[in-house]
Design a protein that fits this description.
It is built from 13 helices and no strands. It is about 55% helix and about 0% strand. The chain is mostly helical and about 280 residues long. Mean pLDDT is about 90; it is low at about 270-279. It has one domain (about 1-260).
């Protein structure tokens, strides 16, 4: 119980600090002009996030860190072997969990049922810090469940899982920032870390470009599996964000976001039917 309390405080402290920090960065160095009100975006996205968080917390009643601590002594775990140095287990766990997030994101674009849920995230007509928490509650449940299963199989050190959780929390805001880095820093950082310009391409209205740049923290998986795209066809400034046929007013409605998986969207395309963009 104490570990859960410490984890919760660390997570929400970072959550708040990262959101505020990225929001300030956006206001000082905006990348694109938003089509809707910032206050409305933040408020409506918060509603959807809270619904998903309450449901998933009630359903699972444990976090990945608590689960990692619970399965530390499992004889079936892959990363709880005493002969493997602790530092090596932590590094392998962090990389493996990041790959799991990449794989789950790839599945969300490749499996039609998962795409029905994930398209709520992509129907955002703009791209800013609040996009990072725009996920349908059902998607939150499915992805969290799959992620917990990965943790159970790996039985990684709880500290490594906590580090991965905190890093992903920060990254969810950073990579969705409506902000830009200096060109020299963008080029250097993109080799080892996913930047906002890197991930923004994934939110292009062009379906083939949505199937690229799927990573969460490390950019290596996209390069390794051929889903990396350096620049969108229309360029960063002219690229259209969102899903075709979804206007700003409709796309920001909480009712629309919560009911999207159960309705037919204009010109709906199944991502699995679209070839990966050439890179």
């Amino acid at each position: 119980m104490t570990a859960l309390l410490i984890e919760g405080r660390a997570y929400w402290a970072l959550f708040t600090a990262a959101f505020i920090g990225v929001a300030i960065w956006e206001s000082m160095r905006p990348r694109r002009k938003l089509s809707g009100s910032v206050e409305r975006r933040w408020g409506n996205h918060a509603i959807v996030m809270i619904v998903g968080s309450v449901i998933s917390t009630t359903l699972y009643r444990m976090s990945p860190v608590v689960l990692a601590a619970a399965v530390a002594g499992s004889r079936f775990g892959l990363l709880n072997r005493s002969w493997l140095p602790f530092a090596a287990r932590c590094v392998i766990a962090f990389v493996a969990l990041d790959f799991a997030r990449y794989a789950l994101h790839w599945a969300s674009h490749s499996v039609h049922l998962l795409w029905r849920l994930h398209q709520v995230h992509h129907s955002d007509p703009d791209f800013d810090v609040s996009t990072g928490v725009r996920h349908h509650p059902a998607e939150t449940i499915v992805i969290q469940g799959a992620y917990l299963a990965v943790v159970a199989v790996l039985a990684p050190p709880a500290g490594a899982v906590l580090a991965a959780e905190l890093a992903s929390c920060f990254q969810s805001f950073f990579m969705h920032a409506n902000a830009s880095l200096p060109s020299w820093l963008e080029k250097s950082l993109r080799a080892v870390y996913i930047t906002p310009d890197f991930h923004r391409i994934h939110h292009s209205a062009e379906m083939s470009e949505q199937y690229t740049n799927l990573g969460d923290i490390l950019p290596w998986w996209d390069r390794l599996f051929g889903t990396y795209l350096a620049q969108p066809a229309a360029g960063q400034d002219r690229m259209v964000i969102g899903l075709k046929g979804i206007d700003a007013a409709r796309g920001l409605s909480p009712v629309f976001m919560l009911t999207t998986p159960f309705r037919s969207l204009p010109d709906e395309i199944t991502p699995a039917d679209v070839p990966v963009a050439e890179v």
